[in-house]
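STRUCTURE:
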């Protein structure tokens, strides 16, 4: 499982000119699933999202998590995170999981984050979305449950 985590001042998702999700201070997280993922991969990414210390403390050091600052989460499915453009100019998405498994794991991740008390908003799975954000910092972190980064 892969995730791109962006610390944001605000972020939103629009589908067909309709605003479907919006958050203030928190994290925008793009998530992708691969065929080899299992429950351990979901738990790894969930824990990293919850505990990643990328918010500033009173001394201006990145030392606080989204949990510490009471931030919101916007979780957006993005299969293109497994795009491979090493050969040619057209990316291959062969490493992206099929839609059924990807949606299942996406929903499990969201449920687990909500169960842990987070205010979670979402994109709309398998839909063309327009995602807007104000990246704070900018801070963008790549996560991979296979620890490939």
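SEQUENCE:
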């Amino acid at each position: 499982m892969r995730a791109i985590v962006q610390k944001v001042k605000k972020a939103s998702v629009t589908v067909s000119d309709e605003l479907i999700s919006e958050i203030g201070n928190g994290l925008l997280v793009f998530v992708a699933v691969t065929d080899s993922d299992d429950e351990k991969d979901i738990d790894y990414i969930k824990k990293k999202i919850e505990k990643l210390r990328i918010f500033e403390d009173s001394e201006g050091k990145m030392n606080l998590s989204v949990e510490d600052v009471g931030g919101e989460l916007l979780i957006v499915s993005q299969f293109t995170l497994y795009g491979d453009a090493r050969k040619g100019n057209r990316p291959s998405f062969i490493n992206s999981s099929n839609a059924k498994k990807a949606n299942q794991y996406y929903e499990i991740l969201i449920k687990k984050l909500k169960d842990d008390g987070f205010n979670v908003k979402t994109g709309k799975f398998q839909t063309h979305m327009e995602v807007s954000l104000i990246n704070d910092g900018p801070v963008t972190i790549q996560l991979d449950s296979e620890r490939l980064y």
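REMARK: The mean pLDDT is 96.
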